[in-house]
Amino acid sequence: MIDPSEARARLRSQRIRRRRRIRRILGALTRWHLLRTRPRVVGVTGSFGKTTTVSFLERILEDRFEVRAPRGDTMTGCQTYLTVLGETALVRLGDLARALPGVAVRTLFRIRRKPHRAILLEFRAQHAKGRVMDEVIRTVRPEIGIVTAIEGVHLTHFKTIEAVAETKGRLVEGLREGGIAILNADDERVRALRSRARGKVLLYGTAPDADVRGTLLESAGPGLRVRVSHGDASADVDLPGLWNPGHLVCALGALAAAECLGVPFAEAAAALSQLCPPARRGNRVPGILGSTLVDDTYNANPRSVAAALAGLARAKSPLRIAILGDMLELGSAEAEAHRAAGRLAAGACDLLVCVGRLARFFAEGAREAGMPPDRILEAANAPAAAAAVLPRLVPGAIVWLKGSHDARLDLAVKALRRPMA
């Protein structure tokens, strides 16, 4: 009789070997495709901000380039290769195995070289070894690499922030000869990666020495107003679609990459006014009773929560509400990280709703910062948080929802959004 645990281990091993075989085949097709078509390849990595930066860059480039970019939230090695090949539909492993012959035929016999094609890729590592990420970087050899942030997230996998930094730096080391590393000047750990670059380095951010620099200005309307500059060129731009100051840094990284790809500064800066964040990453949603929801529920870490709260603090509203869910995978730092976020929330909102297993730490931090207890609510889950907020809503209220993916604050958004007509 076969031991069930042994059978499960054998099945898991078979799936892993099958996935590796498929990835090797897709990698070979990708190398052949890149040699034939010679596109401009931009890679983006970082602890957060990858998808937003890619989305912003895609918007800036779309008038000059045929752009290929990831679709969906799953960016495995296989999906990265499929993005390069123009096969953007996300498929399961079994579907991919059946679809592989068709992918090969389309790749080998439908090549059209386009001089203005750009491919934008996200590079993610699930653990410190990062073997799949290394393999994909060696295969595609990006021309431009953007590193958005290095933060103490996913520490259940990486153990230390130094391991996170080492892994993210592999994109900088893996750029093709003559490649350009574009690094976030506001993040000291990202700055330190310039020592691992073999070619040109551009710094972007709000730091005084950034090559591509942004400064927040006073805004008369909704959204941000910023001054962007590079060398002697500068422009003041309204960003009505962006409320989160953290999005400015993503926009600056996209602007720097667009310039490296030949887009004139004035054109790229003007395109910033059209930017809107991807779904669940700070996009505005009409709420019930004349309120506005900011759906920032895809993920959360201490720095992104701080940026979100800074955006809420700047918002002009009769009632500012923060619904904060658990920040996960912070390891031993989770309790203090949540208290620190609670202290920031005390100065950013009129009502704080803390959700999830770690809610009490948000609440402790807010009370430590002097927030009245009657303005701090705790809820076990997202539906309970929505129910607690509902009777307090007033016309013009802004409700900013921020938490890790597994906090499921998207359910609160669904409960509080205005019904479609």
Structure description:
There is one protein chain. With 421 residues, this protein is α/β, with parallel strands linked by helices. The chain is built from 15 helices and 15 strands. The protein has helices spanning 4-37, 50-61, 77-84, 93-109, 131-140, 155-158, 161-173, 188-191, 245-260, 265-271, 302-314, 334-346, 359-368, 382-389, 410-416; strands at 40-45, 66-68, 117-122, 144-147, 180-184, 200-205, 212-217, 224-230, 233-239, 283-286, 292-296, 320-325, 351-355, 376-379, 398-402. It has a 9-stranded mixed sheet with strand order 2-3-1-4-5-6-7-8-9, sandwiched between helices. α2 (50-61) packs across α9. The longest helix is centred in the first third of the chain and has 34 residues, at 4-37. The radius of gyration is 22 Å and the shape is globular. The model has no long low-confidence stretch (mean pLDDT 92).
Can you describe this structure in just a few lines?
The chain has 421 residues and is an alpha/beta fold. It is built from 15 helices and 15 strands.
Which key terms come to mind for this protein?
6-stranded mixed β-sheet, 9-stranded mixed β-sheet, 19% strand, globular, alpha/beta, 15 helices, 421 residues
